[in-house]
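Researcher: Re-running this chain for the archive, since the previous output was lost when a drive failed. Same request as before.
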Amino acid sequence: MFGAPSTNFAQSHALFTISLLAGLLWFPTETNHALYAQGLDARAVAFAVEKQLINAIEKAEKSVVAISKIKTRRQRIPSRIPAPFGLDPDQGLNTSQDPQNLNFIPNDFGSGVLIPDPTKQNRVLILTNYHLTQGGPVAGQKANSENHIYVHTANQQGFYAEILAADPRSDLCVLSPIQKLPRTYAQSLLPIKYASTETVRKGQFVIALGNPYAIARDGSPSASWGIVSNFHRFPIPVKKHFLNQELAKEETLHHFGTLLQVDTHLDLGTSGGALLNLDGNLIGVTTALAALEGYEKSTGYAIPINKATLRIINSLAAGLEAEYGFLGIEPKRIERNQAKQRFVGNFILQDPYYVEARNVEKYSPAQLAGMLPQDLILSINGHKLTNELDLMREVGKAGAGNEVKIQILRGKKLRELTLTIKLGKWPVVDDEGIVQTQFRHPLWRGMRVDFPTARKKYTFLPFSYPPAVVITHVEPGSPAQQAGLIEGNFIRQINNQMVQTPEAFYEEAKKLNSSQVILQLLDDREVILPLPDK
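Model: Regenerated structure tokens:
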């Protein structure tokens, strides 16, 4: 979704790169002497590179789709960039209302990728960006949506889709067809194969497939190629601390440095598209978050496909909210000289910066695992830390309720320790933006609970970590409502058993399905929860 050079320039750039690569392989240096000895010529190498690109694109292109967001009412929105080819996506008026008509012009458009179904239901699932599908129809909801979402697939076919789940924090969304597709058509929609960014290197060749300027509405995605420029890029600087209650709604996981930077041409409409390796496997989902903030338009960004991203994708495919981990500390980067002043002895601090636990909240996951103020945090799950954003990124990626191993230095005579910490849940700021069609736990006596920090609106000011779970929903007419419970109440005990996580709460609740229950709230009130009516 960035400004693009001309077609002639792009072709020249590709030919120059192939020729340069071929020339390097041909030149008889020590590094490539074996190739030289085998008599490889530049033309053969160039054709070999070209063939690899062609094969990778042919392997993946039927798994990449174009997405049109069609407003249900005529509406004009402010133009974002000059419209190329006479196409104005913001004109609010379609030449044709039929998405399969060649004269159809969508109100908004982007790309998506057909992905495997992790639930083993053999459904057709489409992975794309949250910002592209925002305001679209949600699975299982009868209310009219502001927009229709249409998915254009290979062979000029397509279908209307709905949102299974969407997550503004990762800018990811999973769609599925609204209507059951004909069997033959559904079987022709091949999910892409995942690679992993764990093995991606700076300088590695990559291919981007997408829907630039909505010209892939015939189901044939457009391709560009380049290299990986860098890792852990930031769309915009983070200005607020994660324990600060003034966090902006726009803050996402990517503001802690998750994005791949690539130099492929990502024009308007390639959001949600596929970033491939030379084997034609998915290593990233292209996105345009940085461009919307006015960053360099020749630079592209992609959400990497790694274990953390797959955890999010699998949650969304199951219709669930994607949850993020939370420690409950105030981290701060300090210089090596600052750290040295606190310690005695000959312990050598080699790194220029360290991450200090400036404050550890009482009852937080970090405090329960034994972390103390002024501990120096070296790594998390083997990932070395250089600043507090590294820590916040890795904790968030690990997910709520999961365990992490954190290596620390402690004490005047520094000693190294490893803490195993079961994470809490990052406090969601934009809860209205989250779309989920399923819940991890069923209603129990008409209520649903979550981690105490599940939503920012329930947290205290100044921040504290309650030793309790929070009620996030109360069903009208249920035993919970009859007992006077409301959304936002904190429950710290159920029949005298402490509960600080939703898993602990529901584990105790299962034992009490046929008996009256006494709940103790965080403010020491006791509430008697009657049995549900039979």
